[in-house]
Write a structure and sequence with these properties.
single chain; alpha+beta; Aminopeptidase; 2 domains; 7-stranded mixed sheet; 9 helices; 14 strands
Length: 286
């Protein structure tokens, strides 16, 4: 028997604890991502006899379910009932594939849904031929500007919003075609969502910011990076500076997926990912 509820702040502690216990490096498994994209993905909190799940819909309108507990606590019939109603399980990490016998389930992965994982020390140093272009842009940036950084907090939230509004205007896209609304809500509920971030100023003018959170003990996820296009090299600077701030605590940075966007794929690939972390879809065999 299943019970559905719309995702809201009443589920925050329960979901945060569930994600912490799962200890996964996958970007989808954070309360902030689930909450901020609850409307886009039509997320609902799903309680089953054997544990907790989240049901949602992807951009293609396909229904799926995210497991939030040890799958060994569920019997096979519950899996079958869930998949008959909700389509497929997603995103499933590779280490969970043993729960799904190949004679009963189909396992698929899509490169556009894989997370880009980087060694934090690589982004903090930009050493090697992989980073020649990024080093050049960073050097040009420092030759032109003297950036200053502050932790994102209540007193500078208006400045972060001014950056986001400028970024949205520069994109020349409708708001529903970007992640403007999700980023705006992340700033509005920054403390409640337990997010971490830095805002950057150039000549006392707000110029860019980065927002993220820890996924587990050794992986930090960057959810949003927004900046004015007026400052050449600012994204290289922000990623490099963020990596320097985090490298003593986190071995890896997760920059999420490229969603099949060729520009995003090219940009994220240029930073030399250590690996593409596959996320699997599990469906019943016909």
């Amino acid at each position: 028997m299943e019970h559905l509820e719309t995702i809201d702040f009443q589920h925050r502690e329960l979901l945060m604890n569930s994600f912490k216990n799962l200890n996964l490096p996958i970007s989808d498994y954070t309360y902030a991502n689930v909450y901020l994209f609850r409307k886009v993905s039509h997320y609902e909190f799903l309680t089953m006899d054997c544990g907790l799940f989240i049901s949602g819909n992807n951009k293609q309108g396909q229904s799926y379910v995210m497991p939030l507990n040890d799958l060994r606590s569920c019997d096979m019939q519950i899996f079958i009932d869930l998949l008959d109603k909700h389509g497929f399980f997603f995103p499933i990490p590779e280490e969970w594939l043993t729960f799904f016998p190949k004679d009963k389930f189909t396992v698929l992965s899509d490169e556009s849904e894989a997370d880009y994982i980087y060694l934090t020390q690589n982004l903090a140093s930009f050493k090697g031929s992989q980073y020649t272009r990024h080093r050049n842009h960073l050097n040009q940036f420092f030759a032109s500007y003297e950036p200053q950084a502050s932790p994102i907090a209540a007193n500078n939230l208006p400045d972060t919003m001014s950056i986001l509004n400028q970024w949205q205007a520069d994109s020349r896209l409708a708001r529903e075609k970007t992640d403007f609304e999700q980023c705006s809500e992340a700033l509005e509920k920054f403390s409640a969502l337990a997010l971490w971030g830095t805002i950057y100023y150039i000549e006392k003018e707000p110029a860019g910011f980065i927002i993220g959170e820890a996924l587990n003990a050794d992986t930090f996820c960057l959810h949003f990076a927004k900046a004015s296009k007026n400052y050449h090299g600012i994204y290289e600077f922000m990623f490099n500076d963020t990596a320097k701030r985090l490298q003593s605590q986190y071995k890896y940075l997760n920059l999420e997926e490229d969603m099949g966007n060729k520009n995003l794929r090219r940009t994220k690939g240029s930073y030399g990912p250590e690996k593409l972390l596959k996320k699997y879809r599990i469906s019943r065999k016909a």
